[in-house]
Amino acid sequence: MTLEDIRSRTGSESAGGGALTVTAVQGIGEIRPGDDLVKIIGAACGQDLRDGDILAVTSKIVSKAEGRIMDAALREDAVEQETVRVVATREHPGGVTRIVENRLGIVAAAAGVDASNTPDGTILLLPKDPDGAARTLRSGLRQDFGVDIGVVITDTLGRPWRQGQTDAAIGAAGLKVLLDLRGTPDASGRPMSATVSAVADEIAAAADLVKGKTTGCPVALVRGLDMLVTGENDGGAKALLRPAAEDMFRQGSAEAFEDGRRAGTRTGYGAGYDDGHAAGYEDGYAAGYAAAAAEARRRARSSGA
Hints:
The protein is of the alpha+beta class. Helices cover 37% and strands 22% of the residues.
């Protein structure tokens, strides 16, 4: 969706266009495996929903409803199970931190396996399919309450080069997750060439300001961004993942150095072996030729005598 698309749909001169409100949804309660999130969230806020609203839902309650709970003693097994690629590993006084790409394509510490806001002695894995979970919530609430809304599934992620964590979108349905502003004029009238706003991540971060980590409010209602709600299911939050070919930082610095060292060692060994083999052949050939010539001269002298 471009800025022109928004203008044509809303008559607004900006993506904001009006008041934005973000409200924590009360009354969700503790979620257990098998719970119907459509019914639970609908009972808490369904009557208040309007077309164009966006619900930001913490991934933990999706994981709990899906039964993505494991014994904390199996944490290392869970991380390994969820990991498809190790990006960086660092030892520190508190243990070892592993930054990995998980099966969803998300790069996160410990593959997103978490022990917060879950009963003692347990850990939570990320939802099986966050985009699918968002679609299920959106379609279920639409069926029950007759509203076209957007849904964002959120999780807390760290960020390269920045201290602290923030919530980001790992699943989405019914809204554009990226707002492409390239080619539109900035405040000075110059066309922007690189700006693509990750609006789903911005919604997730704003929602976390009212949901918090310790208040027991896993859902927030975002109102005022109607222009981003598409009224249809689209590609979801997977569109936020940077393709491997465009990723300039696929490894930590220590890992990249070590891989380079190993590759250099293998290349150097191979080149050295080839060079040594060639030089040895030349030296051996020259030595053999000289020995043969010396032997021929000796025989000539002997026969002459």
